[in-house]
Every structure is written in C-alpha cells, then in structure tokens.
Design goal:
Elements lengths: L7 H9 L4 H13 L1 H19 L10 H10 L13 H6 L9 E4 L2 E5 L10 E7 L8 E3 L3 E7 L1 E4 L2 E3 L4 E4 L8 E3 L4 E7 L3 E3 L13
Antiparallel strand pairs: 1-2, 2-3, 3-10, 4-11, 5-8, 5-10, 6-7, 6-9
C-alpha cells in the first residue's frame, strides 16, 4: 500500500470534479492502487450526493468543513474496486519501457505528453531515472505533482515507491536518487519549470522550459 497520499483538499477537489485532466489522472492512478484514499473519496462522493440532493435547504453549520477533513483522516481502507481499464496504458498505447524516451541529461530521460491534454495550462511529462542514477539538485518555480509509476526514488523527504503521490512547490529542494534494481519512472504535472540549484547545473536554467 502507498505511503504517500494526496492531501484532503486534493481529494475533495477530485471528488468535486475540479481538478485539471492531468492532475485528475494522477489521483485516479493512485486511487486504483490505494484502498485508503479510495475509501476517503467514496465518503466524499456520498457527502456530495447528499448535499446536492438537499441543496435548496441545506445550511452547513460553522466548522463543517473542518469536521469533514477530520472524518477523512479516520476513514478505514475500503475493499478492492472492480477491474477498470488502465487509463495510462490507454493514453500511451504501449508499455512504459517501450516509449520513445529522450535523454535529457545524465541519468534522466523524458517524454513530454503535454499535447495529449489540449487546452491545459500545465506541462505533463514522464520522467525516467536510470536505476541507481541521480537527478540534479533542484527546486521548483511553481507546483509539481508527481506519481511514481515504476521503481522508487529517495530524496531529502524520504523514499517514494510505486503509486506514491508527491506534491512539491518552490519551498522544496531535493536531489532524487533511483533506488532498487529497476529504472524509476514517474508522471509529473508542472505549473512552471524546475530550477536547477547545483553549482554548475544552474547554468542550464535559461534553457529549461
């Protein structure tokens, strides 16, 4: 089971249908493998249905929002969901390791799939960090949401394994390292380019989009 999950606000936005298509894809892929978060979204969906049904007459008391968040944290895992089509495979049309990866620098290869999400403002990329490889130290100019699809990586914030959900912003600086014996592949949604912070790699920042 995943150890790193979307926060309560992200799950609420997902349940309400307010997330962008690429962000919703990251959450859905996590939900397909995480009974804990799935149970939280099921409860949010039920609450939303009740509110919609009684919308003309409902007046929520003060503190209701905080109470909902507290209930989410106490919700037990749900049972496994029925089989569903793999959304990422349908999107890409092939296995992750057979994609036309492009070497970016060092141990990192990327595949930009932003064009699969027309009219979306964020950049959507698949990133592959070679087994045992290390990414340059960097921070973020905006928000970055990442889902681990294969393998695992470690950084200053811990170890992130398959289906873990990672949300970073300009307050985070890290140096990911692929751990284990297989390449680490992630799906990332970025609102702005990363900013390299290494002594020499920072010279490449003007060329990063």
């Amino acid at each position: 089971m995943s150890q790193h999950h979307p926060d309560s606000l992200t799950l609420m936005e997902y349940s309400a249908g307010n997330l962008s298509e690429p962000l919703a894809l990251c959450v859905r892929l996590h939900l397909d493998q995480c009974p804990y978060c799935r149970s939280r979204v099921d409860m949010l969906d039920s609450l939303g249905a009740v509110l919609m049904e009684h919308q003309p007459r409902v007046s929520l008391p003060e503190g209701s929002f905080e109470a909902i968040l507290a209930r989410l944290d106490q919700t037990p895992p749900a049972s496994a969901p029925p089989p569903r089509p793999a959304p990422l495979q349908a999107l890409l049309g092939r296995d992750l390791n057979q994609l036309p990866w492009k070497r970016q620098f060092g141990d990192i290869s990327v595949l930009d799939i932003t064009d699969r999400f027309p009219d979306q403002p964020d950049r959507v990329v698949l990133q592959k960090l070679a087994a045992g490889g290390k990414a340059p130290a960097h921070t973020h100019r905006g928000n970055e949401t990442t889902l681990v699809l294969q393998g695992a990586f470690a950084d200053q914030n811990g170890v992130f394994r398959q289906w873990d959900f990672v949300a970073l912003d300009q307050h985070h600086e890290h140096t990911p390292v692929a751990v284990g014996c297989e390449d680490c592949i992630t799906l990332s949604v970025l609102s702005a380019p990363v900013r390299l912070t290494g002594r020499f790699t920072r010279l490449l920042n003007p060329f990063i989009r």
